[in-house]
Amino acid sequence: MFGNPRFYCVVAEINAAIVGSNCLDERSAIAGVGPITIDPRTQDRGVGRKLMTAVIERARMREAPGIRLVQAAYHSRSLSLYTKLGFDIREPLALMQGLISASVDGCVVRTATLSDVESCDRLCKRVHGHDRHYELLDGIEAGRSIVVERSGRITGYASQLAFFGYAVAESNLDMQALIGSNRPFGGAGILVPTRNASLFRSCLDAGLRVVEPMTLMSQGLYNEPSGAWLPSISF
Q1: C-alpha span between 10 and 8 (Å, rounded)
Q2: Residues 112 and 225 in one domain
Q3: Would residue 49 count as lying in a domain?
Q4: For residue 32, which of 12, 3, 62, 74 has the smallest C-alpha distance?
Q5: Which residue, 17, 39, 59, 123, is the most exposed by fewest CB within 10 angstroms?
Q6: How far apart are CA 89 and CA 146, in angstroms?
Q7: Helix (H, G, I), strand (E, B) or coil at 221
Q8: Among the listed residues 224, 149, 144, the one whose alpha carbon sits nearest the alpha carbon of residue 187
Q9: Torsion angle of C-alpha atoms 125, 112, 67, 127, degrees rounded to 10
Protein backbone atom coordinates (compact mmCIF):
# COMPACT_ATOMS: atom_id res chain seq x y z
CA MET A 1 0.00 0.00 0.00
CA PHE A 2 2.86 2.38 0.75
CA GLY A 3 4.23 1.70 -2.73
CA ASN A 4 0.95 2.25 -4.59
CA PRO A 5 0.53 5.88 -5.81
CA ARG A 6 -3.27 5.62 -5.35
CA PHE A 7 -2.85 5.24 -1.58
CA TYR A 8 -2.18 8.11 0.81
CA CYS A 9 -0.10 6.79 3.71
CA VAL A 10 1.07 8.43 6.91
CA VAL A 11 3.24 7.45 9.86
CA ALA A 12 3.38 8.72 13.44
CA GLU A 13 6.67 9.36 15.18
CA ILE A 14 7.70 9.88 18.78
CA ASN A 15 11.29 11.01 19.29
CA ALA A 16 12.09 10.14 15.65
CA ALA A 17 10.87 6.55 16.07
CA ILE A 18 7.91 5.33 14.02
CA VAL A 19 5.11 4.22 16.36
CA GLY A 20 2.18 3.86 13.98
CA SER A 21 0.83 4.14 10.45
CA ASN A 22 -2.40 4.56 8.55
CA CYS A 23 -3.47 4.39 4.91
CA LEU A 24 -6.22 5.92 2.79
CA ASP A 25 -7.30 3.99 -0.30
CA GLU A 26 -7.98 6.61 -2.98
CA ARG A 27 -8.68 4.22 -5.86
CA SER A 28 -12.40 5.06 -6.03
CA ALA A 29 -14.75 7.95 -5.26
CA ILE A 30 -15.28 6.50 -1.78
CA ALA A 31 -12.16 6.61 0.40
CA GLY A 32 -11.22 3.54 2.45
CA VAL A 33 -9.30 3.85 5.72
CA GLY A 34 -6.77 1.41 7.09
CA PRO A 35 -5.34 -0.75 8.22
CA ILE A 36 -4.16 1.39 11.10
CA THR A 37 -1.23 0.16 13.19
CA ILE A 38 -0.07 1.33 16.62
CA ASP A 39 3.01 0.19 18.52
CA PRO A 40 1.57 -1.56 21.63
CA ARG A 41 4.06 0.34 23.79
CA THR A 42 2.51 3.68 22.76
CA GLN A 43 -1.19 2.86 22.91
CA ASP A 44 -3.53 5.16 24.85
CA ARG A 45 -1.40 8.19 24.04
CA GLY A 46 -3.56 9.68 21.28
CA VAL A 47 -1.54 8.26 18.38
CA GLY A 48 -4.53 6.52 16.83
CA ARG A 49 -6.66 9.67 16.91
CA LYS A 50 -3.92 11.68 15.17
CA LEU A 51 -3.46 9.01 12.48
CA MET A 52 -7.21 8.89 11.87
CA THR A 53 -7.52 12.67 11.80
CA ALA A 54 -4.74 12.88 9.21
CA VAL A 55 -6.47 10.60 6.69
CA ILE A 56 -9.94 12.07 7.35
CA GLU A 57 -8.58 15.55 6.61
CA ARG A 58 -6.97 14.20 3.44
CA ALA A 59 -10.27 12.69 2.27
CA ARG A 60 -12.11 15.93 2.96
CA MET A 61 -9.45 17.93 1.14
CA ARG A 62 -10.02 15.70 -1.91
CA GLU A 63 -13.80 16.17 -1.46
CA ALA A 64 -14.45 12.43 -1.22
CA PRO A 65 -18.24 12.02 -0.84
CA GLY A 66 -17.79 9.23 1.71
CA ILE A 67 -15.19 7.52 3.90
CA ARG A 68 -15.40 3.94 5.14
CA LEU A 69 -13.50 1.48 7.28
CA VAL A 70 -13.82 -1.97 8.80
CA GLN A 71 -13.42 -2.21 12.57
CA ALA A 72 -12.58 -5.28 14.68
CA ALA A 73 -15.82 -5.75 16.63
CA TYR A 74 -14.10 -6.95 19.82
CA HIS A 75 -12.06 -3.73 20.09
CA SER A 76 -14.22 -1.38 22.14
CA ARG A 77 -11.68 1.45 22.15
CA SER A 78 -11.46 1.71 18.36
CA LEU A 79 -15.27 1.51 18.11
CA SER A 80 -15.54 4.42 20.51
CA LEU A 81 -12.85 6.45 18.72
CA TYR A 82 -14.30 5.97 15.24
CA THR A 83 -17.80 6.84 16.47
CA LYS A 84 -16.50 10.02 18.12
CA LEU A 85 -14.78 10.91 14.82
CA GLY A 86 -18.11 10.76 13.01
CA PHE A 87 -18.32 7.18 11.69
CA ASP A 88 -21.63 5.31 11.81
CA ILE A 89 -22.09 1.54 12.08
CA ARG A 90 -23.45 0.16 8.80
CA GLU A 91 -23.00 -3.59 8.64
CA PRO A 92 -21.98 -6.50 10.89
CA LEU A 93 -19.44 -8.74 9.17
CA ALA A 94 -17.90 -12.16 9.74
CA LEU A 95 -14.31 -12.73 8.73
CA MET A 96 -14.35 -16.26 7.32
CA GLN A 97 -11.65 -18.70 6.25
CA GLY A 98 -11.59 -22.07 4.52
CA LEU A 99 -11.77 -23.54 1.03
CA ILE A 100 -14.88 -24.50 -0.92
CA SER A 101 -15.04 -26.48 -4.14
CA ALA A 102 -18.72 -26.39 -5.05
CA SER A 103 -20.00 -25.51 -8.50
CA VAL A 104 -23.38 -23.82 -8.93
CA ASP A 105 -25.63 -25.00 -11.75
CA GLY A 106 -25.75 -22.46 -14.57
CA CYS A 107 -22.78 -20.46 -13.29
CA VAL A 108 -19.31 -20.46 -14.83
CA VAL A 109 -16.39 -18.89 -12.94
CA ARG A 110 -13.24 -17.83 -14.79
CA THR A 111 -10.29 -15.45 -14.48
CA ALA A 112 -11.19 -11.83 -15.24
CA THR A 113 -9.63 -9.98 -18.17
CA LEU A 114 -9.42 -6.33 -19.18
CA SER A 115 -12.33 -6.83 -21.58
CA ASP A 116 -14.56 -7.56 -18.55
CA VAL A 117 -13.89 -4.26 -16.78
CA GLU A 118 -16.74 -2.25 -18.31
CA SER A 119 -19.33 -4.90 -17.43
CA CYS A 120 -17.92 -5.25 -13.91
CA ASP A 121 -17.97 -1.49 -13.35
CA ARG A 122 -21.64 -1.35 -14.37
CA LEU A 123 -22.46 -4.17 -11.99
CA CYS A 124 -20.64 -2.49 -9.09
CA LYS A 125 -22.52 0.76 -9.76
CA ARG A 126 -25.80 -1.17 -9.71
CA VAL A 127 -24.97 -2.75 -6.34
CA HIS A 128 -23.18 0.14 -4.58
CA GLY A 129 -23.90 3.29 -6.57
CA HIS A 130 -20.23 3.71 -7.55
CA ASP A 131 -17.56 1.62 -9.24
CA ARG A 132 -14.24 0.40 -7.86
CA HIS A 133 -12.47 0.55 -11.21
CA TYR A 134 -8.84 0.86 -10.17
CA GLU A 135 -9.08 -1.85 -7.51
CA LEU A 136 -10.39 -4.20 -10.19
CA LEU A 137 -7.56 -3.22 -12.54
CA ASP A 138 -5.02 -3.95 -9.80
CA GLY A 139 -6.60 -7.37 -9.25
CA ILE A 140 -6.62 -8.21 -12.96
CA GLU A 141 -2.99 -7.13 -13.34
CA ALA A 142 -2.06 -9.45 -10.46
CA GLY A 143 -4.09 -12.32 -11.96
CA ARG A 144 -6.36 -12.53 -8.89
CA SER A 145 -9.69 -11.23 -10.19
CA ILE A 146 -12.47 -13.60 -11.22
CA VAL A 147 -15.92 -13.26 -12.79
CA VAL A 148 -19.00 -15.46 -12.78
CA GLU A 149 -21.12 -15.77 -15.90
CA ARG A 150 -24.72 -16.93 -16.06
CA SER A 151 -26.76 -17.14 -19.27
CA GLY A 152 -23.79 -15.76 -21.19
CA ARG A 153 -23.29 -12.55 -19.21
CA ILE A 154 -21.26 -11.42 -16.20
CA THR A 155 -23.41 -11.58 -13.06
CA GLY A 156 -20.69 -11.17 -10.43
CA TYR A 157 -16.99 -10.64 -9.88
CA ALA A 158 -14.32 -10.44 -7.20
CA SER A 159 -11.29 -8.18 -7.35
CA GLN A 160 -9.84 -11.08 -5.36
CA LEU A 161 -11.19 -13.48 -2.75
CA ALA A 162 -9.10 -12.05 0.04
CA PHE A 163 -8.92 -9.77 3.06
CA PHE A 164 -7.94 -6.89 0.76
CA GLY A 165 -10.38 -7.84 -2.00
CA TYR A 166 -14.08 -7.17 -2.55
CA ALA A 167 -16.86 -8.83 -4.55
CA VAL A 168 -20.26 -7.88 -5.96
CA ALA A 169 -22.95 -10.00 -7.59
CA GLU A 170 -26.53 -9.81 -8.80
CA SER A 171 -27.65 -12.57 -6.43
CA ASN A 172 -26.52 -14.88 -3.65
CA LEU A 173 -26.37 -17.66 -6.23
CA ASP A 174 -23.71 -15.80 -8.19
CA MET A 175 -21.78 -14.96 -5.01
CA GLN A 176 -21.88 -18.60 -3.91
CA ALA A 177 -20.36 -19.56 -7.26
CA LEU A 178 -17.49 -17.11 -6.73
CA ILE A 179 -16.84 -18.24 -3.15
CA GLY A 180 -17.10 -21.91 -4.12
CA SER A 181 -14.65 -21.68 -7.03
CA ASN A 182 -11.95 -23.66 -5.21
CA ARG A 183 -9.62 -20.67 -4.83
CA PRO A 184 -7.80 -20.19 -1.49
CA PHE A 185 -8.73 -16.97 0.28
CA GLY A 186 -5.87 -14.50 0.54
CA GLY A 187 -4.72 -13.16 3.88
CA ALA A 188 -7.02 -13.60 6.85
CA GLY A 189 -10.03 -14.56 4.69
CA ILE A 190 -13.16 -12.98 3.24
CA LEU A 191 -15.64 -10.62 4.91
CA VAL A 192 -19.25 -11.79 4.73
CA PRO A 193 -22.14 -9.45 5.71
CA THR A 194 -24.05 -11.45 8.33
CA ARG A 195 -27.34 -9.61 7.72
CA ASN A 196 -27.37 -11.56 4.47
CA ALA A 197 -28.38 -14.60 6.49
CA SER A 198 -28.84 -16.86 3.48
CA LEU A 199 -25.32 -16.23 2.17
CA PHE A 200 -23.77 -16.43 5.63
CA ARG A 201 -25.56 -19.71 6.36
CA SER A 202 -24.48 -21.19 3.02
CA CYS A 203 -20.84 -20.37 3.84
CA LEU A 204 -21.15 -22.10 7.22
CA ASP A 205 -22.91 -25.11 5.69
CA ALA A 206 -20.12 -25.41 3.13
CA GLY A 207 -17.51 -25.62 5.89
CA LEU A 208 -16.16 -22.08 6.18
CA ARG A 209 -15.37 -21.03 9.74
CA VAL A 210 -15.76 -17.64 11.40
CA VAL A 211 -12.41 -16.17 12.42
CA GLU A 212 -13.76 -13.05 14.10
CA PRO A 213 -16.65 -10.55 13.92
CA MET A 214 -16.01 -7.17 12.33
CA THR A 215 -18.02 -4.03 11.59
CA LEU A 216 -18.31 -1.84 8.50
CA MET A 217 -18.51 1.86 9.41
CA SER A 218 -18.96 4.93 7.24
CA GLN A 219 -18.85 8.70 7.27
CA GLY A 220 -20.61 10.76 4.62
CA LEU A 221 -22.33 9.21 1.61
CA TYR A 222 -23.53 5.63 2.06
CA ASN A 223 -25.85 3.76 -0.31
CA GLU A 224 -27.54 0.64 1.03
CA PRO A 225 -26.19 -2.09 -1.31
CA SER A 226 -28.60 -3.69 -3.78
CA GLY A 227 -27.45 -7.24 -4.44
CA ALA A 228 -24.89 -9.59 -2.95
CA TRP A 229 -21.52 -8.19 -1.88
CA LEU A 230 -18.38 -8.78 0.14
CA PRO A 231 -16.38 -5.76 1.37
CA SER A 232 -12.62 -5.54 1.60
CA ILE A 233 -10.85 -4.60 4.82
CA SER A 234 -11.13 -0.97 3.66
CA PHE A 235 -14.84 -1.11 2.68
Answers
A1: 7
A2: yes
A3: yes
A4: 62
A5: 17
A6: 29
A7: coil
A8: 144
A9: 30
Q: Is residue 110 scored above 90 in pLDDT?
A: yes
Q: How far apart are CA 151 and CA 170, in angstroms?
A: 13
What are 162-197's pLDDT values in tens digits? 999 999 999 999 999 999 998 999 999 999 999 999
Q: Are residues 133 and 225 in the same domain?
A: yes
Is the distance from CB of 70 to CB of 188 less than 8 angstroms?
Answer: no
**Residues in CB range of 105: below 8 A, 6 or more apart:** none
pLDDT band of residue 161 (cuts 50, 70, 90) is very high
The secondary structure element, H or E, covering residue 57 is helix 47-61
Q: In 3-state terms, the chain is what percent helix, strand and coil (to 5)? A: 30, 35, 35
- Contact assessment for residue 157 and residue 149, using Cβ atoms and an 8 Å cutoff: no
Domain harbouring 67, CATH code: 3.40.630.30
Q: Based on the domain organization, do 51 and 167 belong to the same domain?
A: no
| Assigned domain for 235 exists | no
pLDDT at 195: 97
Tell me which residue range forms the domain holding 207: 96-230
pLDDT confidence of 25, banded at 50, 70, 90? very high
